[in-house]
Design a protein that fits this description.
Layout: H1 13-20, H2 33-48, H3 52-64, H4 70-79, H5 82-88, H6 95-103, E1 107-109, E2 112-113, E3 126-129, H7 131-134, H8 137-148, E4 158-161, E5 166-169, H9 184-191
Antiparallel strand pairs: 1-2, 1-3, 3-5, 4-5
Helix pairs in contact: 2-9, 3-4, 4-9, 5-6
Length: 193
């Protein structure tokens, strides 16, 4: 016959917590260097709405670029994506909405329809909303006019023509144009392993 232990207050305090259903508090674990690097990469991927394969492609392109460091080149490429450019021009409320507007064929680059959110804009490109879409009053009020009325500043590398619902790329974005707290050196270290 098996003997059971009596349940008294003399038992171990952790056992008592288990019995009463209280959670045991754990000490916070120290994040490793790899963990920090991975978290930074995931943050940037999520911010720009990319999948892993797309992100790797942009990183490889940034490394191949001759001038500048790979981290700065990566951020410049991500900023030049059409969905991000549309968002930065205040022609969409979120990057996700910008992506949807582009996929639906509502965006023109240099008067040509572009349906790929990952399209990279170049210097002197003119990004505009399709004139047929401008006639859709409800869509314009909910998707575009809403953000245009906000007091958000357009980055220096872009020029917005508010009344015409279009913008011009003045130059390639540099690191100082990106206000988000991103430590691109951690991403470079992660991929250089």
């Amino acid at each position: 016959m098996e003997r059971r232990k009596p349940t008294t207050a003399q038992n171990d305090p952790s056992d008592l917590k288990k019995q009463t259903g209280e959670k045991q508090t754990k000490r916070p674990r120290k994040v490793s260097e790899y963990g920090k690097q991975l978290a930074e990469k995931q943050k940037v991927k999520e911010m720009y709405g990319l999948r892993e394969r797309q992100f790797r492609k942009f990183f490889a392109q940034a490394v191949r670029k001759q001038e500048g460091g790979p981290g700065e080149n990566l951020l410049s490429l991500l900023e030049r994506r059409l969905d991000n450019t549309l968002y930065r021009l205040k022609l969409a409320v979120t990057r996700e909405q910008a992506r949807q507007i582009i996929v639906h064929g509502h965006v023109l680059v240099n008067a040509h329809r572009v349906a790929s959110p990952s399209y990279l804009v170049s210097v002197n490109d003119v990004v505009s909303i399709n004139p047929k879409v401008l006639e859709m009053k409800a869509f314009m009020e909910q998707a575009i006019e809403k953000r245009l009325k906000m007091g958000i500043k357009v980055p220096d590398w872009l020029e917005l023509h508010k009344s015409e619902h279009k913008g011009t790329v003045l130059r390639e974005p540099v690191r100082t144009d990106i206000q988000a707290a991103i430590e691109e050196n951690l991403i470079v270290e992660l991929y250089s392993k």
